Amino acid sequence: MHARMQGLSIQPQHQGGNVSQTTFNPKKRCADVCMELLLLESVHLYKNRGAPAASAALEAIGMRVGKQLAERYTKDRPRLGETLEVIKFLCKDFWLLVFKKQVDNLRTNHKGVYVLTDNNFRWLSRSPPISSAGGDPSQEEALREVALQHLHLPCGILRGAMIQLGVPCTVEADHKLSPPACAFTIRLS
Amino acid sequence: MTSACTFVIVGQLDHPIYEADLTGPKEQQAQYLHQFVLHASLDAIDDIMWSTKECHLKTTDRFNNLLVTAYVTPGNSARFLLLHDGRNDENIKSFFTEVYELYLKIMLNPFHGPASKIMNKEFDKKVRTYARKILGL
């Protein structure tokens, strides 16, 4: 899973030194749909194993992956100094490389809480939008629960990345917004 | 002419995750001294690290005739320390850059924990090869 995530997020590298190359040089790529199916299946798998473990397991996987992605993506960039720079790196470069776009809104209360809002979160793009006007409230709740389960993994990834870059924190996902919009709250510890 | 040279990678929790004595076999006393000097230089590196945006920190500390040169990874997660006697400064930069690439590959290994020591023999071999090629040891 880690290798797949990293393989999908990086651009294909130049394979130098390969002597017998024909003119057709297929760069190694993986279809995006594989990633989406992998994410769906991983949530499904851990849900079937037992609900209490699911969120913890997904967050733990996310932390591992987040740490390694952070290590990888800071490679040729200038050094990150204070917390705000780390958050900016997260919102711009990291989000771009992992979720193919930048964060739409960043808010802070200057006391160690940051809220990152993404109006079109890539990993929730297949979820049905929850209409706030009318509709069955219990059904809405159920849909929100499902959306929340899919957010454990991205929360873990963000948390792992922040910790690796030297900022211990906790990350929560806000499932009050209608998917595919999504907000992540980072609390510095 | 023997030149003293020890290379250490220090993790986020200030513990060495990799050590290599890059010169030939030496007596025990000098090895302990090298370790001690490198450990002591962590304070100086900490000071300099946060006052500059550079990854390559020049000579950060000295003890008698030994110099400690350091490099910080862009994500501030590891520090590379080289204890030497000040003969080839230019090449140290390229040495650190090469080792950074190797370090990244180790870090991306899913079986390598965040604070575990680097026991990989290939890594060790490559570091020593680079040391021979670039630093001329």
Task: Give an account of the 3D structure.
- The complex is a heterodimer of chains A (189) and B (137).
- With 189 residues, chain A is α+β, with helices and mostly antiparallel strands.
- Chain A has one domain: Muramoyl-pentapeptide Carboxypeptidase, domain 2.
- Chain A is built from 6 helices and 4 strands; from the N terminus they run H-H-H-H-E-E-H-H-E-E.
- Chain A has helices at residues 2-9, 32-49, 51-73, 83-99, 137-149, 152-164, and strands at residues 105-108, 113-118, 169-174, 182-188.
- In chain A, strands 1-2-4-3 form a 4-stranded antiparallel beta sheet, with helices on one face.
- The two termini of chain A are 29 Å apart.
- The model of chain A is unreliable at 7-23 (pLDDT under 50).
- The radius of gyration of chain B is 14 Å and the shape is globular.
- The model of chain B has no long low-confidence stretch (mean pLDDT 84).
- Chain B is built from 3 helices and 5 strands.
- Classes of the chains: A alpha+beta (189), B alpha+beta (137).
- Chain A: Residues 8-22 have a biased composition (Polar residues).
- Chain A: InterPro entries: NO_sig/Golgi_transp_ligand-bd (IPR024096), TRAPP_component (IPR007194), TRAPPC6/Trs33 (IPR037992).
- Chain A: It comes from Chlamydomonas eustigma.
- Chain A: This is Trafficking protein particle complex subunit.
Broad structural category of chain B = alpha+beta
Mean pLDDT of chain B: 84
Looking at the chains present, what oligomeric state does this protein adopt? heterodimer
User: What CATH architecture label of chain A applies?
Assistant: 2-Layer Sandwich
Rg over alpha carbons of chain A: 18 Å
Tell me which CATH architecture of chain B applies here.
2-Layer Sandwich
Name the CATH class of chain B: Alpha Beta
CATH topology of chain B: Beta-Lactamase
Number of E-state strands of chain A: 4
Instruction: State the helical fraction of chain B.
Output: 40-55%
Order of helical and strand elements of chain A = HHHHEEHHEE
Average pLDDT figure of chain A: 80
The helix/strand series of chain B, from N terminus to C terminus, equals EEHEEEHH
As laid out across the biggest beta sheet of chain A, the strand order is 1-2-4-3
Spans of at least 5 consecutive residues with low confidence of chain A: 7-23
Protein name (chain B): Trafficking protein particle complex subunit
InterPro entries (chain B): Longin-like_dom_sf (IPR011012), Sedlin (IPR006722)
Organism (chain A): Chlamydomonas eustigma
Pfam families (chain A): TRAPP (PF04051)
